[in-house]
Specification:
Shape: globular
Low-confidence stretches: none
Mean pLDDT: 92
Radius of gyration: 16 Å
Order of helices and strands: HHEHEHHH
Number of strands: 2
Strand content: 5-15%
Number of helices: 6
């Protein structure tokens, strides 16, 4: 699992390095990008979130030993999906999970 801070660097060149490293560590498994929409939220002139997304997209077409999952809140993820014209065609399945009810959370808490 990675979040924005794990794959977005502070200077030019660092983001690609961090993102490639995360991809390599996840090879043969799953790379979960939690709160993925944060990659595409405006952050000023020196924001490299879009670069991280493009690095991830560069392996999405041909990687057969890696699954990349993007997670986030539904409304923000809809905006994320429109951040790059090629992103949506690279995502094969979208799954939405409903929020837990208070009763379901209580039942989870009560389990050992």
């Amino acid at each position: 699992e990675v979040q924005r801070g794990d794959i977005v660097g502070e200077y030019i060149g660092k983001t690609a390095q961090l993102t490639r490293s995360a991809i390599e560590r996840a090879a043969g498994g799953i790379l979960l990008v939690d709160e993925a929409y944060r990659l595409t939220q405006p952050g000023g002139d020196m924001d490299f979130g879009q670069e991280a997304l493009e690095e991830l997209m560069s392996v999405m077409d041909f990687s057969q030993d890696l699954v990349i999952m993007f997670a986030g809140y539904p409304t923000e993820m809809e905006v994320f999906m429109r951040a790059n014209p090629g992103l949506k065609r690279r995502i094969y399945r979208v799954m939405r999970f409903p929020d837990y009810t208070v009763e379901e959370i209580a039942a989870i808490f009560m389990r050992k």
